[in-house]
Amino acid sequence: MTLSVAAEHAGRSARCPGCNHRFTLPAEPTDGDKQAGRRPADGSDPSSEPKQRTGWRETDPANPDIRLSLGLGIGITALILLFGLLLRRTYVYTILFERGWVNFAETFVFAWGMAIIILKFQKLAHQRNALLLDVLPRKIGREINRGNVSQFIDHVYRLPLRLRDSLMVNRIRKGLELFEVRPSNADVAHMMSTQSDIDSIRIAGSYSLIKVFIWAIPILGFVGTVLGLSSAIGNFSGVMGGAKDIDALMGSLGGVTSGLGTSFDTTLLGLLYSILLSFPMSALQKGEDDSLNTIDAYCNETLLPRLNDGGGSGGSGGGNVAGEMRQLVDTILAAQKQFVADLRDVSVLVRDQVVALEARATRHSDEIVKNVSHTLAHLERATTTGVESSTAAVTAHIAALQQGLDSLNTVLKAVGERQVHVELRPRSLWRRLIGK
Question: What is the pLDDT of residues 24-57, one digit of tens each?
């Protein structure tokens, strides 16, 4: 097993995360030692078939055993109650043992939540110890290709079982085994990103029960408040009934104060337990997030850059990468030039279409103006002709009327100068009878 240690820690004493024995960190090897101990980057024969590996059984890195946490919670509850018994005749004893069953329930829920947090802190310490491992030693090869990936996987399988069952080692093992079967950097990077999301969701889901406990403890305190107030109100009715008896009155008042004390103490204890449970949970959550970020950074900065899906040695691999980068840049530049040329052609077409539309609009506008002018001129001529015809007809009618009036005046004048005699003869009775 090899550990990843910074050069400034050489010569110091440290504890092995695998066996817990102390040892002295060796000094950094010289260049000659590195050249002597370096293996060819090719490793084994690339044509050899991948080894059949069974892996190992992975334990849950975030969720502790529920039965173990329950047993530990019962033990913490017993310790808290024992501590209260040792402080007899104090307020701690009163609030733990003399305020009803609600405080016992709050103490048990708090102890169970603390047990889960303690076990999760142990798992976090295990993950941090695994971060010290040198999972991808450079003595096997500076890069990871199809020729030496099996050696890196064998090195991972030789790590101590206590430390290799961790988030970082499991993720790197899965990435290397995928690269051995399907040598593609893109596939490995996608798998690493997906596994990172899975680990993050798993870590976040492990806090569900603790968050329920933090929510339930104050609710239990409010339940105790309701019970205490109801008891106080019931005793207060007894006070009103025995107001004439001083001894009975004092006894009833004692029941009222006891009920009020229960209501207040249960709420106080619930709030204290909730606060005491929230602070270590937040610190634990931050520590696990930092651990996940460290694992993601190691995979992105150490594992993925060393993968070479093109094969070959380090020098040729570097040359191939540079050539591929130049080819990629040339392809991008050619595509950009083609895009600019196409954009220029499209601009020319758009400009021609705009000019044609402007010409067509001008022509249509001229035709509309011409048609409107012709229609107005025709309407003006028709109106003028109609008005002139109407005027002539009216003038002729007026002249004929004037002539008629003149003739009538002449007739009336002639009639006025003459005397007209009208003789009325009486009719006989017979003619009157027959209507003649």
Answer: 666 555 444 444 444 444 444 444 455 666 667 7
Coil, strand, or helix at residue 24?
Answer: strand
SS3 annotation, 133-150: ECCCCCCCCCCECCCCHH
Place of tokens 């022509």: 363
* Residue type at position 295: I
Q: Reduce the DSSP state of residue 213 to 3 states and report it.
A: helix
Which residue is listed with tokens 């059949």? Answer: 52
pTM > 0.85 = no
- Distance, in Å, from the CA atom of 347 to the CA atom of 342, rounded to the nearest integer, reads 9
Q: Is 23 helix (H, G, I), strand (E, B) or coil?
A: strand
Output the CA torsion sign for 350, 352, 356, 358. Answer: positive
281 close to 116: Cβ distance less than 8 angstroms: no
| C-beta separation of 226 from 85 below 8 A | no
Residues 6 or more apart whose CB falls under 8 angstroms from that of 228 comprise 99, 100, 259, 260, 261, 262, 263, 264, 265, 266
The residue ranges of every structural domain in the chain are: 38-310, 313-410
